Amino acid sequence: MMSGVTDRAGLPRLAAMFAQVVGLRWWIIAVYAALVPGAVHLALRIPQDNAIGKMVVDSDPAVVATREFHTVFPEHAVALALVESPRPLSDNAVAGVRALQSALERVPNVTTYSVLTVWDRLRPTGHWGRAGLPGGPPAGEGDELAAFLSGTRFFRDQGLVGDDFLTIVLALDVTDPAERDATLAATNRVLDDALRAVGPGATLTGVRRVGAPWLESWLESETAASSLRYFPLFGAFLLVLTISLYRSWRALVTIVLSLGVAVLLGVAFGGLAGFSFTIISSVVPLMFLITVTASLIYLHSRFVDRQADVPLDRHRVLALDNKLLAVSASMFAAAVGFAALGISDIEPIRQLGIWTSVGLGIGWVVCFTLYPALQVVLGAPTRVERPVAGPWVMGLAAALPSWSFRWRFVILATAAVLAAAGLASLVGIPGILAPMRLATAALDYVDPDEPVARDARVFSETVLGLTSVDVWVRTPPGAVLQRDILVALNGLSESLRRQPQVGSVVGLASVLRLRRYGAGLGDTWPADEAGLSRMTADLEPLLLQEPAVARFVDLSDLGGSYLTVTARAGDTARFDGLELAIGRAWAEAARTSPVLASCSYRIVGIGVLEDRISRQLVPTLTQSFALTFAIIFVTFVLVFRSGPARVIATVPSLFAILLMFLFMRLTGIGLNVATILIATTVLGATENDQVHFFYHFQEKRTRGASAEASLVHAVRVAGHAIVFATVINAGGFLALTMSRLPPMREFGILTAAAFAFALVADFTALPAALWIAFRERPGGPRTPDSTTA
């Protein structure tokens, strides 16, 4: 093993600095060894948080209004258990649901209600009994309940009863994801026990679990599991590729240890900064893996490329000196590009940008300290001691100039057409192709084959849509219980129910109508003055007796109420459709009830938050992408003295990004909170290749070489590193295809595809553009660069 001590005499200043780093190698290794235990502790403390509230801008007026609304009208997380039966109103089915509801009531933090709860509270003794039924006495409780439900659409409209199910609503009094998961686990045990007790010919045939708590719980557990799944896969892929490329276990251990420490320290920064893993930031460790791996591959590929007559210790520091600018420029551009996401008001996006940026900075330090120290200590060999893979690079370097020159116009025309098609795929073509839609609902991120997803889709397609908002009606203080206001609220409720986009409406007027129905007065609003006066007079004391009524009234000043509006089954317009419907209904109600002129309304709730995510993510990421591109371009301006190189260097990345959108359109992959990050991710990662390619191109060009000679040199020195770094990067992202999270799986497929597109462009569009920019021919003399800075 070589001593690693280099005579610094005659070395360039930076190479002499690296010689000093190598001399301190044991101290450097000791420092990193001391940091690792604390880093492990911090990394393991990072929580998982996929709450939708984290994805919106806190200062957005709709978000502020929703927060204020929940202060006035607190609400619990709600889940639904749809108990299926071919005859849900038979005696046995009703008895089974009653027993199941009783068991669920015993689960800590769970409060239940169903049509049975309402029926037990509202039915007068005997009114819905035998004497009250036409056609003779009923057979039992099922027939009584059927009679009770037959006179109103209220319960069917709310999804509490259907032709083949009865619904048990579960209100979860939980404060954090851990308590929610424990409560859901206990709930699932009760439901599973009930299903196991069902025998052949039983009346109850199954239970569908519907609602945000189940979806969010699955998302969070699967996000954590995905990380544990793709890390070993990426590690195995890295081991195989590295040992195949460098054919040395010492080289493998050098790279893997350096990479592991860089990723661990980068992740630990998130724990130190108080960040959380979300659907978005769960890819942060993979970003570290990809970018740091690429830099280590570039460094080691330059290290193994040693001439036999150059001493190993001297070559080691000269190789580090040679790659310092290119590696630093590429990692700096990527880090600052991700830091551009820090401008976002959306917390997970901001965390992703800062976290990745700082982590890449940590990775850069590791690459130029721990990596050379381990390289010496472990005695990693060069190609002189151990041949490496990649002799094909020499043949590629010799053939590429003439081939790319001959086909330059065809290559660039093809690339331009594909890029234009990709742009059209993203933004659409008016009247021909709609723009890509951004998916924001929790259901969009769940594997469609999961039972929780199937149950939610069946519910949304046959019972009620999954988009729900609250219409917060503000009245003058003390006026919400006045007769004219109550009449207006009922008129608004009826107008909303007539809108084709609306599936159900629940509010103060609905509850009052239901109480009248339970009293045998029919499912109608009182039409006579006496009835209205009696209902108004009874309402105030009712607030003290009935929580179901009080929850719809602002008790602080009696100056407000709300209606929960849910989209119809099969809804596709989501929030936009409900917003239009609410506007029309308010205008219609205001025409018949002038008292609404003294009132106002705001649309708040979860549906609003989902809509704001889609509205805020696109411009935020567009701004950050533009800033990232500008930063990378400025980096190229500073690194490359050739004007054409500054412009052409971005061609492969932009081509890959635009072609990726065409790929998305053709494969049916949509935009979501993960895939919308593709552009920034690809731009920040693939520019590594262009930096290294053009650095070595310029390395030869500044010595007076022609474009052909410079191209040959760039391919010979950087070609196999570009190919193998791309393969490792693409393979790393492909590990995400093992995830059961559709956004993560699609993110992996798209990013791997984009890396492949960029690699193709590196060896086709890039040299073709060079020939046109420099106006030279293979074998011809060099043309002076008129734009050289």
pLDDT < 50 stretches? 125-138
Overall spatial form: elongated
State the CATH class of the largest domain: Mainly Alpha
Q: How many domains, as an integer?
A: 4
Secondary structural class: alpha+beta
Q: Please outline the major beta sheet.
A: 5 strands, antiparallel
Q: Looking at this structure, what is the CATH superfamily of the largest domain?
A: Multidrug efflux transporter AcrB transmembrane domain
How many separate helices? Answer: 29
Terminus-to-terminus distance: 45 Å
What does this structure look like?
- This protein is of the alpha+beta class and 789 residues long.
- It contains 29 helices and eleven strands.
- The chain folds into four domains: 176 residues, Multidrug efflux transporter AcrB transmembrane domain (Multidrug efflux transporter AcrB transmembrane fold), CATH 1.20.1640.10; 142 residues, no CATH class; 246 residues, Multidrug efflux transporter AcrB transmembrane domain (Multidrug efflux transporter AcrB transmembrane fold); 123 residues, no CATH class.
- Strands 1, 2, 3, 4 and 5 form a five-stranded antiparallel sheet that branches.
